[in-house]
Specification:
Elements: E1 4-5, E2 12-13, H1 19-23, H2 32-36, H3 60-67, E3 78-83, H4 86-97, H5 108-118, E4 126-129, H6 134-140, H7 144-149, E5 160-162, H8 173-178, E6 183-185, E7 195-203, H9 207-218, E8 223-231
């Protein structure tokens, strides 16, 4: 088989083909060494935010969110695919901050499989990718959340609009949690009574997803779920 370049390290590698691959192609886009540097989330997790922990149940952070009457039951659950380890940190820097949109193909199988495993029974109506501000979109050239949503077999509703603020990665945990809502809604009529799946690249404190979910619920959506690539 002709060698293909790894999307992470750019070195050529030969994909190992099995009988299963002949029927269900794997579309492998990374070498084994690079892929093994990414750590999938396995084992017990928080039932709301998917934080890895010693046992199933709600984590301390999600309990604190639910103790605040303004944020109770805003999201039904988040599912994340990977942990934010050093391997993912390097990949995310290239994908998100250096404009390498092609790297989304590294995640396509795992992201789609997580959707099928955790969300098909909920009968989701559409995805809502977390938007960038116009300034950030111009700076980056693409919205990483939309590229992830493109991997899923669901219609997309681009109903959220984001105000330009300092990058979330530069904010402290407390600043993220206490920040005023950065989202506004462009069209509320098309989300009425719908089950929606918010898509974003990373779950950190959960403030961004909860802000987006709250404005969707306040505008008539039925339930909000979240699928994120990374749980930090």
């Amino acid at each position: 088989m002709k060698p293909i370049p790894c999307l992470i390290c750019h070195e050529d590698f030969s994909e190992q083909v099995t009988w299963t691959d002949l029927l269900l192609p794997s579309n492998q886009r990374t070498c084994d060494d690079c892929y093994s540097s990414l750590q999938k989330i396995t084992g017990p997790t928080c039932c709301i935010c998917f934080r890895p922990q010693e046992s199933d149940g709600i984590c301390y952070d999600c309990q604190r969110w639910n103790d605040d009457i303004n944020w109770q039951n805003i999201i039904q659950r988040n599912v994340s695919v990977f942990q934010y380890n050093e391997g993912m940190k390097n990949v995310l820097a290239s994908y998100k901050f250096r404009g390498d949109a092609e790297l989304v193909k590294v995640f396509q199988n795992d992201f789609l499989n997580s959707y099928k495993k955790y969300f098909t029974t909920y009968k989701i109506d559409a995805t809502v990718p977390i938007p960038l501000s116009d300034e950030r979109l111009y700076e980056r050239g693409f919205n990483q959340a939309k590229l992830l949503a493109d991997l899923l077999p669901l219609p997309q509703l681009h109903v959220l609009q984001r105000t330009h603020h300092e990058k979330q990665s530069k904010k402290s945990r407390q600043q993220r949690i206490t920040a005023s809502n950065v989202f506004s809604l462009k069209n509320s009529s098309i989300i009425s009574n719908k089950k929606l799946l918010l898509i974003d690249d990373i779950y950190t404190t959960g403030s961004t997803l909860r802000q987006a979910a709250k404005i969707l619920l306040d505008s008539g959506a039925d339930k909000i779920y979240c699928l994120t690539l990374i749980r930090s």
